[in-house]
């Protein structure tokens, strides 16, 4: 209906289109009812002005006081009937406006609620995907934070594993050389003696 940018989600677009169509039809119904009410008011005012002009003409042309009273009385009855007819027209217009608004609402409510459900499902799906992505990123960040310590050889107790292993290896090598050295020393001293 309206041009949207490509970044707008299709579910949002269809829901906005449905809402816009609903609001347009509701506005048309309201304005038609308002226009009919205005036309009725204009018609009433025109009729009342014509009646007033006729009554004043009869009152101005009356020669006797009895003609004056009879002219005024003869116009009072039709004026009250016209006001009653006006009230009936207003009641009919109000009823017609309610029927029209109910028809428009019924026509659009299914489509609007369907698109609203689709939009809610889309939002929920996107939210769960974003939550999963966020959790994965947090897990990766924690893993990257822990990995440098594991790779560099730091254990859980804070000692360097590689240094400890290297130290144990150095102690073992020293012990072996001392044993060899003692043997060599004993061999050398036996040779010198």
From TrEMBL:
Q: For the region Disordered, what residue ranges are annotated?
A: 149-193
Domain spans labelled Phasin: 18-109
Xref: Pfam families: Phasin_2
Instruction: Point to the regions of Low complexity compositional bias.
Output: 163-176
| InterPro entries linked to this entry | Phasin, Phasin_subfam-1
What name does the UniProt record give this protein? Answer: Phasin family protein
Q: Which organism is it from?
A: Massilia haematophila
The root-end lineage is: Bacteria, Pseudomonadati, Pseudomonadota, Betaproteobacteria, Burkholderiales
